[in-house]
Amino acid sequence: MKLILKLSGEHPELPKEEIKAVFESENLTWKTVKMLEKERLLIIDVNTGDARINEIINRFSMVKYAGKFLGIYDKNSFHDSLHEIALEISKELKKNESFAIRSKSQSLAEKLGAAIFQLGFKVDLKNPNKEINVFITEKYFIVGVNLHLRRDFNKRLPKVRPFFHPTAMHPKLAKLLVNLSRAKKGDRLLDPFCGTGSILIEAAIMGMECYGFDISARMISGCKENLKFYGIDAKLFVKDSLNIEEPLFRKFFDAIVTDAPYGRSSRLPYGNIEKFCHRFLEVASRLLKDNRYLVMVMPKKVEISNKKFKIVNRYSLYVHKSLTREIYVLKLN
Question: Whole-angstrom Cα distance, residue 185 to residue 294?
Fold first, then answer.
């Protein structure tokens, strides 16, 4: 199935890396058909059908639009090919379905809509059964059928949860981190510094079995309150994640995803970030299954001295003028 994706402009690499990670986690092969960098439009061919695609695309956090790709047309020949394009679009419409054309060009939308109307389909601009999008670039018109991504991050912002803490992560970033871990539905995912539960909430929504540790009993209590608010079940423990020895959790987790407690309004464990990171990776190597991923956010670049982990990628993510976060994607050898 061919898709057209409109990528977020928040980062030059992360949207494509997230797509790659999600498809990898779902054991799907895919290839790029065309990338239009200026417009951030990515056309891909992925080996899955309509039945799975909505679940998969709704995992993406850094994709603004997803549609079924119908065609790419040279601007100079588009108007001469209106009937042909209308016929192609009509294959996506059932007998009594309505449609609407969405485009920055009102004239183009009207002409293409008229051509489809003449084929016997009705127009409904307010509540159509199918929404047809025409993207306009310097050289091309690109046509797709909107697959309607769910974008409900506002319902899960830290400020609307019953338990608030200023260090809580935005749900979009939390979802991105989970996706970069290559975790999939049914996998066991651990956030060893879970705080208010931002990462666990997004992982649970995607069907993962979630575990959270935090050294603070107050944070675990607040995390439970937040998870309950969203009807989410997770296994939470008051634990010092730098000192875990229980054999129960040895090689137990399919993914570890966390925002490290690098002194966020509290004293940094082990005195500095390098010592903290060294100790944490030592513990994580015992908890994580081999050949699986750990994704962690740090306040700055750190040296990964633990040879058990391979650095797959590192990304600098600008948050605001006084904060840039470093995202590390590590794989346990």
Answer: 17
